[in-house]
Amino acid sequence: MDLNKFVYGKRSLNEYVHHLNQNGASFQVHYWGVMPKHYDNLLHKHSFFEVCYVVDGEGTYIEENSSQPLHKSTLFLSRPEVLHQIKSKEGLFLLYVAFDLMESESSEEWIRIMEGAKQQEVVVLHHSDDIPTTLLWKSLLIQATMKEHSFFEEMLSSMAHSLILSIVENFVSPLNHSKQRMVPEGFSLLLTQA
Fold it and tell me: What pLDDT, on a 0 to 100 scale, did the predictor assign at position 175?
């Protein structure tokens, strides 16, 4: 996919995808970004989550007293109210999205999940090029260039919500919530897998 399509897709997402509400989770999306050459920024923090994916380039992600290398195929999470900074001498090609949970429109379970996300220690995932999250992100950007399709806005909303859920799943410790699949007693594992 060429850079122009990434940029065009970002524009459509910023125009059409702001509020995502499905299955008890309501998210406010503050912005979608595509930046072909991101260099250094100042130490700062947000009141929301921001997730970045490194399409290409090398740099460093600094958060509080630790630093992590950034390179092609790295996915990283900036948590709310945590000081952080991105540095790169050559420039990073970044995709990014900023969002937070609208607690007044979300279930208690989702409020608990997102509180857990704020406490996570693992905020950088390397070798993320072929995981569902990044594949979905790229697909969403492609879909966002196809305004002439009949269900354009509905598909963007559904795909964007799936992307946010996938991001959360990547950075939250195994979720112990009520929708977890239960294996009924008396059934063998092999039968259940079949």
Answer: 58
